[in-house]
Amino acid sequence: MTLASLVGLYEIFNASLLFALVVSHHIPNECRSEPAMPMSAQHHLDLEPQIGNRESHSAFLNDEFETLALTSWSLHYKSCVQHFLKHGQYTLEVQSLAALINIRLPHQRISQAVDTSLRQYIQRLIVTAHDSPSILLAFFGGAWESGVACILKEERMNYLFAAKSNGWASTKTAYDILPDEQTPFLRPLRNPSENEIQTAEIQWSEWLAMQDWMVGERSPW
What we know:
Elements: H1 3-26, H2 39-46, H3 54-66, H4 70-86, H5 92-100, H6 119-127, H7 133-140, H8 144-147, H9 149-165, H10 168-174, H11 194-211
Helix pairs in contact: 6-9
């Protein structure tokens, strides 16, 4: 390569460098790209816990309860109880399912309490994956969404926690009704939503914090 060629290349290089400096000087800050983050740093960032303040954390968990009017809910719940006692338990569909999942209906019990709790029936429907809207309608009537949906939600969460904290045998025992209404089988939670699982994860984390006494001022939330 001749000396003239080298001089020409040197001049081209200097011109390119000068142009790059001028252009970069006039680019607004918001248009400039950030330097690439190393992969190790990206991985570390992804694993950082997304923990907000206590107020937002509590609001996420308690929002559903803030909107629950206890007086009106009680009326709907009593309507479900009355439907179950006067109609639902006498239908062939409910009697057949009760026999399958091994739980006595109120009229089959020797001594009936003054008040009948629906929670044990909801629990048995959940753990056997029979808590579908059509079955809930058959058991508790048209007001089931207003009357027992909140109990259903609580017990589905409890079932997730029981499965996570115990083995199969212990979980099954927890849902047995003595002396002879044992849970015949367990099934995975029916059709859980992603929001339901995320809420369970948050509440489970709170319980783990409770086990380590990370409550009150020590709470990470």
